[in-house]
Amino acid sequence: MFELLKDILVDDLQMRADDVTPTAGRTEVGLDSLAVIELSSVLSERLGIEIFDYELLELATVGDIAALLEARCRSAAARSADRRV
After folding, report:
1. Cβ neighbours of residue 33 closer than 8 Å, sequence gap 6 or more
2. What is the pLDDT of residues 17-41, one digit of tens each?
3. What's the rounded Cα separation, in Å, for the pair 9 and 18?
4. I need a surface site. Which of 15, 43, 48, 65 has the fewest CB within 10 A?
5. How far is it, in rounded angstroms, from Cα 60 to Cα 24?
6. The Cα angle at residue 12 between residues 7 and 17, in degrees rounded to 5
């Protein structure tokens, strides 16, 4: 999930690839409040899950964001599987 997030940060939000590491803080990669809103929108659209900007603002590192995305995707997949049963 980190690599997908990194691709989005670099390709869509124009962050520097060298700055995007799992331990980098939001400010280190350039994720100010406006960029977080844009990231929230891109993630929701691209992954089909709901991610709110305030959730992203509460996280300290890019790795924390990736972990939230992974958990949210697992949860969405589980709900989808439950509906099919």
Report:
1. 53, 57
2. 999 999 999 999 999 999 999 999 9
3. 11
4. 48
5. 8
6. 45
